[in-house]
Amino acid sequence: NFEYSRAWTFGYFEVNMAFDPDTGNWPALWLRHVNQTNGNGAEIDIFEWQSSVGGSSTTTNYAGTVHSWDNLVDTSAHTYQLLPSAVWSDYNTYGVLWTKSQVCWYFNNALVGNCVSTTSAPFNTQFAGQEAMFLILSEQAGCNWAYSTKTPCTGQVSPLDMKVRWVHVYSPPAS
After folding, report:
1. What is the 3-state secondary structure (H, E, C) of the chain?
2. Phi and psi of 125, rounded to 5°?
């Protein structure tokens, strides 16, 4: 239970960070419901990257995802991006705009990919302001979307290094 965390309902969230695109690195920026229970809840992945995606530690693919769980069933809407100019070891700004009707992703202040509508089921029951979300910045080791404690990465680099310069949250004015 995260009742003492700072959480928001809607807003623009951005993080300026750099990381080493090493084998087994799994940096992620995400939002999660405050009162999420096992099997039920919602999550917005602002940015999630793994060296194993595409079979290369230099991949420029990353995932931005909206997850809605109901009784352990995950309904997801993905927006995978290919950013050929991305240099992960440089500081970049990763952002997401969450409104009552959609979620949109930004890279270095430019809209990327398609926004995901949250006006129809199942997303309208999770993302229309029913519950606040808190921001998580994480870096862990993993390959193929499995933590390295379960599936070790061949050639895993240690230590991992994610550097965060700043975090900004812009919440909409109270109505």
Report:
1. CCCCCCCECCEEEEEEEEECCCCCEEEEEEEEECCCECCEEEEEEEEECCCCHHHCCCCCEEEEEEEEEECCEEEEEEEEEECCCCCCCCCEEEEEEECCCEEEEEECCEEEEEEEECCCCCHHHCCCCCCCEEEEEEEEEEECCEECCCCCCCCCCCCCCEEEEEEEEECCCCC
2. -90, -5
| Predicted confidence (pLDDT) at residue 53 exceeds the cutoff of 90 | no
Q: Which of 82, 80, 83, 52 is nearest to 66 (CA)?
A: 80
* Max avg pLDDT among 109-118, 124-133, 150-159, 161-170: 161-170
pLDDT of residue 76: 85
Q: pTM score, two decimals?
A: 0.88
